[in-house]
Every structure is written in C-alpha cells, then in structure tokens.
Amino acid sequence: MDEEPIPVTRAVQGGTAKLLPDVDHEGGWLLTVDGTPQSYVDLRDATYLEFEYARRVAHVLDLAAPPEQALDVVHLGGGALTLPRYVAATRPGSRQRVADTDAELLAFVEEHLPLPPASGIELAAQDARDFLDASPAASADVVIADVYGGVHVPAHLTTVSYAGAVRRVLREGGVCVVNVADAVPFRFAGSQVATFRTAFAHACLVAEPSVLRGRRFGNIVLVASHEPFPVDALARRAASDVFPARVEHGAALERLTGGAAPVGDGDAAPSPEPPDGAFTIG
Q1: Of 81, 105, 259, 274, which has the highest C-beta tally within 10 A?
Q2: H-type helices in the chain, by residue range?
Q3: Is 216 helix (H, G, I), strand (E, B) or coil?
C-alpha cells in the first residue's frame, strides 16, 4: 500500500515553507510560507482549484482563446505552480515561463510536487521585472502576475513602468491578470486599475461580493487588455462559480476605484498590510 503523505518543511528565501497534505482530498497539497497560504495543488487533477482567486484567474484563461488552443503564458510568481499546471492540463502544447525570485521555494515544490512530463513549463529564479525586461516583445498571450514578498506586492511591481513592461511582452490581443489584495476604500486596487489603464485600453475587477461591499479584506483579480475582453462571459462564469464573484467594469468600476491616480516610480509603495487572520491558517 502507498504510504500516507506527510507534511514537509523547508527554509526558503521567503521564510519557512510547508507542504501540507489535504486529509479530506486525496492528492491535494497546501503550500504555506510563514503560515500564510500560498497555493493549493491537486496532483491527481490539475483542473481542481481550491482557492477562489485561482478559479477566477482560470475563468480568464478559459476565455482568453478558444478551448484547448495552446497559449504562450508568462507567470510572475510561482507558488506551487497551480495555474501553470492548470494551463498545461486544459491547453496541451502551451509554452509557459514562470519567474520567481525564491529559488529555494521553486526547488522545494519541484522536488515534492513534481510537474508532469513534457509539461512545457520552464522555471526561472528571477525578479519579475527583470524577467519581463529580458523577455522578447510580443512573446506572450497571457501574463499572470501573482507576486508577493511575504504578504505584500513589492513596490516596484505596482508602477506605470511595470505596467508598460507587461504590455510590451504581450501580443496585441493578449490579456494581463493581476492578483491584488485590498479592502474598502480600495486605494491600492484603485491605483492599480489606474496604473494598468496607462498601458491597456480595457480593465475590469473580479472579486467576492463581500469584499466589494467592504465587509472584509480579500483577493481582487484585475484583468487588463488592449482589445475588448468578453466581460459578460466572465461575469456569468464568476457568478455561477461554487465561490460566486462579481465583475466590475465601466461606470461601476469608476465608482468603485474613486478616481485613483496611476503610480509613478517615485511614488511606489507595497500593497497594504492584511488585517490579522486575513490569510493565515491555524
């Protein structure tokens, strides 16, 4: 009989990483760093997404091109490589590049949660902005930014020049997806909408209604594109999900973000501190 999976721990650049088996879901693993959940992976089914925000990013990926069409995807921030695994499973033949500064974390994940053979996923232990600047122009269909230093998005990944670097790497019909965390009055999320609008013509936000109504701090997915994105289809998928979410765009997005200004390099600051207990586990 197979041995029962057991938790494993390793010191990584970002702190203490743990991989915890899900006793209620065979094949499931939770990655935490210093007690903060980072990723959830199902080794038996890469299309199973436990985290709500990951499901919302997956909806965007599903709508980015016709079903099963291969994509070139850049992932800024690796975690346990949940979304790269999802793309590999749903769009075979896709070419994916993952940049994460924490080489020890990437090695830890590769050792204990190995990627499937011929996954098309390449890993680079590199800063996200440096990785973008070294990438060819118009080389990606999708850029997914989910970069956290501890519990904060680093300041240098919040600016107009950063948004421009993302835009340069994307093809004309490409889409950018950014995971941010915020709460009412959405000063950070609003500033990111304004910042990415300097590089992209279209933007929307996807989040749980309780976050949008100001009841709690939580993840907000920003979607930006140069060409129109099918927001109505995204809204239907988000609303019918097991974790329902709402899509804000147009006038509703303007009201939500309150006329926030873009972030210049000289004004950059990390994302806000989550309240105690917002993302931790026992």
Answers
A1: 81
A2: 52-63, 82-90, 103-112, 128-134, 160-169, 187-197, 209-212, 231-240, 250-257
A3: coil
